[in-house]
Structure formats: C-alpha cells, structure tokens
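Hi P.,

Sorry for the delay on this. The queue was packed all week, but I finally got your sequence through. Input first:
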Amino acid sequence: MNRKQLTGIFNNSRNRKIIIAGDLMLDRYLFGDVSRISPEAPVPVFDIRKNEFRLGGAANVAYNIKTLGSDPFLIGVTGDDAESELLKYSLSNIGIGTDGIISEAGRPTTSKSRIISESHHLLRIDSESKEDVSEESQKKILTLLNDHAEKNSIVILQDYNKGVLTKELIRKISSLSVKKNFKVLVDPKFDNFFEFRNAFIFKPNRKELEDSFGIKIKDLDYLDEIAAKLMKKISCSNIIFTLGEQGMMIYESVNGKLKKEKISTKARKVADVSGAGDTVISTIAVCLSGGASVHDAAVISNYAAGLVVQEVGIVPVFKNELIKNILSKEK
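Then the structure:
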C-alpha cells in the first residue's frame, strides 16, 4: 500500500459522518505504587500518583474516529450522575457532540476503575447495570438513527452487553438498515451474538466466537466452516475474525462464494490489549467511508491495533502516526 492510496483514503474520509450506537463507558485509571502492607489488614497499600479519565466502549470508538479525521455521531445511554457529566465533558472537550446521549434516572453510567502499578493491572472496579434500557430510550435511539443515517451511511453497533443494544432494538435497526440502505458494522458480544442480521461487516474476536459456538478453536482452518455457518445464519456480507497474536481472518462473500485471507499481526510488543477491538472497528469504518475495500480497510486497521496495544490503557490512534507507521513497514 503506497502513500497515494493511503492519503487518498484518509482525504476522502475527512469529516465524513460515521454513526456509533452502543454502550458508553467512562474509564478511570489510577496510576501509583505498592511498596508496603497495610497495618490494618494483610493487604497491599496503593499510593496514587496520577488519576486519569478516558473514554471507553462506544465513546472510545467515537474518539478513534475523530482522531482519524472523520466526524463521529455518538448514540448511547448514561445514568443521571456525576460519571455521566464527566463522560460528556470529556467528549465535548475533544470536539465530539453529546446530542445523541440519552440519560436515564436511576441507572448508573458504566464506569471502570483500573488500578495500575508499573504497567501492571492490580485491580479493576466496575460500576454498571446490565439491565435493558427503557423502551423510551430504545425509541429515542431508533429515532436518532432514522434522523441521521442516510443511504450508504456507516453505522457501528458497539455491543458490550450493558443493556443499550437490546434484542428488540437490534432487530429494528436491522430492518431500518435494509429500508434506508446504510451499512452496519457490528462489534458483538455473547448475549446478542446471533441477533445482528444483514450487517455489512461482523467482527467478533476469538473469545466471542468460542463462547457463542461453544467450541475451542485450535486449528484456524476450522474457521472456514464457522464462517460459512455464521454468514448463512445472520445474513452478513463480510466477516472479520480478530485473533490476537494470530492476526485477522477476513471472509468476503463474492458471487455466492467465500473468499478468505489471513492477515498477520503488526504488533511489535504488547503492553495492553484494552481497546484494541474499538480501534479495529473504528479504523475499518473510517477507511470504508474513504472508499477503501474491505480488505484494505482491514489491513489498515491491523496496523492501527498494532500501535495501540503497545500502550498501557485505552488510547486512540492518530491518522498521521498511523500513515507513517504503515509506510515505514510497507517499504
């Protein structure tokens, strides 16, 4: 892939609106040191040196889309609490609108606090609800999608099983995508795995695949059979399996036949895989909006994932850094 191709894709995707609907999260990182045991109980004492808030879940996807040069429109649900205000402030501070965020009283905003010492995760504390959002919130989400998605729009459904993408809502979004002819990209989780129908791209990782099919994947050749079954079951156009250190496997439906290709991982070192899936789906979306093929979008997203897993915590990928990294490897 040469500079002209890359810059052409990202120039074409500049300021293109990409819609993200799904579970919003606020990630808190507590960085510090453990050097003693508490005199009160036999537990380590964690001394905080730095406290950071970062965007997680669908919000992190929106952030990546922003740093890659496109225009994210974010749809999701938070609680009516301090974490919601922090999340909205963080989004507004980087130029991402919050008009698509719906607040539900009595529901906690999904937040995750990670305790980190010397690049090691010691503990994670979660605050969340996995109950389905209200019918009123679901109606609002569908209305927002109907108002903002047009023919050939790209819509990412980012599911973390936190109750925003309910089974009923997923079915209605699928019907709407057929009616309005927009492209749906799905990042699934276990609970709703087989609910997403008519997607343009379906992107599960190895664990999601194994959990949903009740299998253990030891031989990558077995993926051919799974891909064929999955494509038939959910009527999707393309499947991208993300396989960690084994890279990606792409399956495209071409003239009724499955065309496959394996892409090797581009990570030089892995410090933290948090948010890598968000990076992949957001990069694919941006590249598709810039006219890239599914294959080229996946290749570029693989480079993007290789960059972010080298950092501790959830971080975005930046367009110029990504282009520079790809060109240095493609020489």
